[in-house]
Amino acid sequence: MNKFLHFVKSHIIAVSVLFIALSAAAFGGTGFLRAQSAAETTAGFSDNALLADYRRVEVASVSDALEQLTGRRMYMSHRMHPLFTTKFAGFARTVLLKKDEGNSDPAALNGMLEAIDQGSTDSVYVMVVEDGENIAGMGGLMGTAMAARGYAGAVIDGGVRDVAYLRKIGFPVYATGIVPSTSVHHYRFAGSQMPVTCDGVTVNAGDIVAADSDGVVVVPRSKAQEVLTLAQQMDFKEHSMYAVIEQTKSILEAVKKFGRL
Amino acid sequence: MNKFLHFVKSHIIAVSVLFIALSAAAFGGTGFLRAQSAAETTAGFSDNALLADYRRVEVASVSDALEQLTGRRMYMSHRMHPLFTTKFAGFARTVLLKKDEGNSDPAALNGMLEAIDQGSTDSVYVMVVEDGENIAGMGGLMGTAMAARGYAGAVIDGGVRDVAYLRKIGFPVYATGIVPSTSVHHYRFAGSQMPVTCDGVTVNAGDIVAADSDGVVVVPRSKAQEVLTLAQQMDFKEHSMYAVIEQTKSILEAVKKFGRL
Amino acid sequence: MNKFLHFVKSHIIAVSVLFIALSAAAFGGTGFLRAQSAAETTAGFSDNALLADYRRVEVASVSDALEQLTGRRMYMSHRMHPLFTTKFAGFARTVLLKKDEGNSDPAALNGMLEAIDQGSTDSVYVMVVEDGENIAGMGGLMGTAMAARGYAGAVIDGGVRDVAYLRKIGFPVYATGIVPSTSVHHYRFAGSQMPVTCDGVTVNAGDIVAADSDGVVVVPRSKAQEVLTLAQQMDFKEHSMYAVIEQTKSILEAVKKFGRL
Amino acid sequence: MNKFLHFVKSHIIAVSVLFIALSAAAFGGTGFLRAQSAAETTAGFSDNALLADYRRVEVASVSDALEQLTGRRMYMSHRMHPLFTTKFAGFARTVLLKKDEGNSDPAALNGMLEAIDQGSTDSVYVMVVEDGENIAGMGGLMGTAMAARGYAGAVIDGGVRDVAYLRKIGFPVYATGIVPSTSVHHYRFAGSQMPVTCDGVTVNAGDIVAADSDGVVVVPRSKAQEVLTLAQQMDFKEHSMYAVIEQTKSILEAVKKFGRL
Amino acid sequence: MNKFLHFVKSHIIAVSVLFIALSAAAFGGTGFLRAQSAAETTAGFSDNALLADYRRVEVASVSDALEQLTGRRMYMSHRMHPLFTTKFAGFARTVLLKKDEGNSDPAALNGMLEAIDQGSTDSVYVMVVEDGENIAGMGGLMGTAMAARGYAGAVIDGGVRDVAYLRKIGFPVYATGIVPSTSVHHYRFAGSQMPVTCDGVTVNAGDIVAADSDGVVVVPRSKAQEVLTLAQQMDFKEHSMYAVIEQTKSILEAVKKFGRL
Amino acid sequence: MNKFLHFVKSHIIAVSVLFIALSAAAFGGTGFLRAQSAAETTAGFSDNALLADYRRVEVASVSDALEQLTGRRMYMSHRMHPLFTTKFAGFARTVLLKKDEGNSDPAALNGMLEAIDQGSTDSVYVMVVEDGENIAGMGGLMGTAMAARGYAGAVIDGGVRDVAYLRKIGFPVYATGIVPSTSVHHYRFAGSQMPVTCDGVTVNAGDIVAADSDGVVVVPRSKAQEVLTLAQQMDFKEHSMYAVIEQTKSILEAVKKFGRL
User: Fold this and answer.
1) For residue C203, what is the enclosing H or E element?
2) With contact defined as beta carbons under 8 Å apart, do C253 and D141 qualify?
3) Cβ–Cβ of A32/E243 closer than 8 Å?
4) Is E164 in Cβ contact with B164 (below 8 Å)?
5) Mind listing the pLDDT tens digit for each residue in F55-102?
6) Tell me, what's the ipTM?
7) Is E6 helix (H, G, I), strand (E, B) or coil?
8) What is the model's pTM?
């Protein structure tokens, strides 16, 4: 690299540092966060606005922000796959199914159906099917009901079926597998709107569930605004870094100056 | 929900019940099934007609029907993936490969090649590769032969390779993984047209193998007509329920009235 | 077809007729529509609920309902393509660009930018680029702003660029072509929130724009509830017919009995 | 290129020439074709076998063979697009719709429905919609009926709608556009099983219609066996040339030796 | 928007302005460009490096830079479609085919084959097929030869066939249509490495042809370094703007401050 | 099969045998390989030419050639998935990350960043993340740096995130899973350009890493030319066999005559 180019690059980095430093001062300081929290309390940020913002922030940034603020891993594993590329956020509506092999109780799953019928716009259906990798916890009928009620999506720790139909109506589902089977006669409803452990992550009713092409993350309701603000800053930094890395062709310099990977 | 709407919905449900009750009377009754079986015997439903119908019914319904009529799980697991979205049905042509690590017998797999060459239109190639997740049990050459002979598709409990070529010729394959390896020098032909256990499901030569975007199901030949009839009824019910759920936005009511999930 | 089967089919058709006739009585009558309109006025169906319902009804049914109620063609042509499979509905925010070849006015397009900044959740950006098939009327920057403001999507009678970025952020755009060019120095803002003729369809500010995999349709705001109700009935009929046609294998009988194609 | 490599390449080419020359002697000679035709007559090659072979030969080769044997262009234009990647062959079942704008005759399209109901396994529905680029000549209901009756696919000189549903059931359709509109009240049935001009190609009832990712070609029934045989030879030559070109990296030498492009 | 937020946003914008102003000073000034050109002459930037950089810059930015520096439209229209999503750059190797309907000259296209055989790594094949929308100017054999010789891709003002094979080998082609036909007996080679007008754009042998998901652009060789530098600056600005727009949710402010749309 | 057809087929097979036998004589003999190696030494085949050839040969053939020549399994398992269909080859640049849970060392991963910054055109980034299936070893920032430096691709024994961005810039990555998490604070750089065991395969710095739709294979640098030559012969044989199998419809005869499966 000739000297002139190096001179130019140094200046760019310097500008970047200044840029980010000022941004950090403006956005990242404790004072700002406190002020905003105050504003939030008085102004009453609605749930709608909160979800709208969660729909625009990256799941990876939400996961990082959660880890930084709470020290907890709140993302689902690589086993959780979407039926098609999607991006949604909503409030968790939880259901738990337990094995009850061979039962012939026609009402065994009624609690699940009631739980579905009680959800509405911005619900995300989160269901744990005990040992359910090869059992379709949901299919086209349940998906049609959720879509008709306005659910944002569904996350199943278990299988899914009728995937052609779910793709046809465009209802987004994450699940651990695709199988043609049924839970009827094999499972029993064990509760809804209770804490469940979905693919290793504790989900409480009303938690925010956000999903995009990187996976699924769960945000405790009480931390939602704080996590969002930090995640937005992380997105801003990361998106600013792309252009700088393209130009300098050095990730080391970029990370050093921006202070994050 | 206002009263009028509720009144309307009740009527719809009532009509649905009537509708389904009559359908059930017409289609589902023992008498009908017996009559149809009789008709089948005399009329001699051809294999072609049977497969044509299996190509149009959903694998999930076939799986449910099998379970209801036989109490057996006959579907393959979420490990079984298609190379591309497909839908086919045919008669199983089974092959078993056993490990014979390091063999240099050029004829070790000849039995497999012979088995392929004996199949024809409407065959589905079902091969079990012992511990074969990282061994390509089949590739482009075998797929070309099967396509040239008119096979409906292939189901491999093991890996597959040459997937770009298989997609190019549009030959549908389900397998448990994609790997660039070969079975040559590692495996030995251990029999064909014998019962095999493919991804946990017993497959006999001549069983019907049906596959769609929800997975793969195996139907014993002797049960094929009975299972088909029940699966068609299940499809009919399920497809009828979609419109009702969209309108009532309640899965609970729909399931109660239609009598199925 | 043997006699028994014919008997069964006749009964199914009869039941279908009864079913639909009663549905029609319940849903389709003038009295019902009037009652519902009254309910709407008093109950104050919100815009949110209206859009939520439009997001769940098929564009084809909306187009048919519009034609039946107003006698007008309100759908866009086959020239209008989505960047990816999508489904959305929102209120039109209209912009018109006129050719001004070679202008060097840096403010020539400012009105367009202002129009974008005034939109919000549930806006659909509708822009007509005069003779714009080979001019990218919008790209990644405009799409980022619309996504950040919560727009439902965009419909451009003209080209689009930065399609990889728009797919990355998942912002849905319909346009008549993909081109790498710019409107800067070639076009001038000619007004916003005015009636425009987009791909042959008149769009007024605030009209409902609904899009799915079949295309784009525009619903005058004053007709929105009426059209929605009829479109929902059409969806219900059509979705009910699928199961019946599968079973009877006759579209003629189905159409005769259900009274629609 | 060093001398040794050149020597090797020359030998490969020489072998190829020999190879192809012998193949041509075996397959391409007049004597062979005559012999085969005789065999066909006596052996009675069934329609099923003919279609099975057409499903395995490339549409491009069929088009070339047709042109060589008949001097006619029998392929459809680049305007004809599939809803999804597919490959099928079947016998044409033709329908013609003519404009009858604003008609309110409920029976205007009954002839079309009857024509659909008369088709069966291996039919390909070929419909011309006069000036129909922005009119959906077919949709989900008609596709469901065709699928239920076993049709191989459909080719519409006009639009198509309900494409999400058609993809869901996997029924392959070629059309000139996707639009949400209807032909009802705008068109009248003008005949079936008559010669139609579909996207510029004359199609007679019973002609073979073959489609793959390169498009659609129509083969007069009387030429079907002759065209097939030549197309298979063309496929064989072309597929043999791929490996040779990869190795020699010269298309000129390959074309000179194999005698075709 | 409350006052605090406004204060913060103002600062961010101010920083952005400073950031970009300095960048512009560093990169955009006449002095810098002149210095870099000098450096290029002495340092001898190789063709490889030039192409490597063109592979990483956006086609839309190249098109904008060309227009700004030369006042010419050098991008191809929306009629030009890729067979699959791709991104490449290389030096144009031009060929022209003219109609010669019904010729039976076996050497009519030999010049084209020779032209293909003379290309190598980093060639882009650019061929104009006179009135060729429904004629496949190239197919799998020509694509195999180009791939074997290392071509970056092909751009055909005309049709293409064997698209399944071209996708299988991953050779990127832009064309105006997919058709199963052939140019043999219909066209005659009319020259290579001469200026051609491809989809409205003049292409000279050795021009840089760059393609991505937004389309195809052609850069005269003499302008290549200058255009590249400006396009890289445009990319940098645009990519910097994404993060700012996400945060401020205003495209108007962003465009005013960054000085570009 | 009638006698005539059998006669024809026998001749084809005979020709094939002759064809292949001569090819083998020309290409496969020890003498030829030795001669070519000599040529290579003197002619000095560049790395560029080597990689260009590896980009055109099938990964499955490379894997088979490696196994035949070295007796070692050098392909990665079915756990390794690409973010999108791709094909690349380059020289391995290796990195190892070891668990260091909860570290707050801002320099813990600096070695990784330095390793990235030292790569260039034709590098393939190969990183092992200890127990890293649910940790994103790389994301958009690292991918942007690699793309800016010209890397051919990346192979991660661990997770990946920012997949929408990586798809947008078209940078090819193979990984064992998609997760939204980070390695920061959980891992520490443990070395680069050292031998690593990636998904069970030993990779040394500078080894050739080739990837296509069948997976990933690693070729020791010292064997690269020898393996390439054999893999090319395997490709040639396999590609020649496709046409023969299509015609004879027998894989057994083809395998017997060509001497390979």
Assistant:
1) strand C201-203
2) no
3) no
4) no
5) 999 999 999 999 999 999 999 999 999 999 999 999 999 999 999 999
6) 0.85
7) helix
8) 0.87
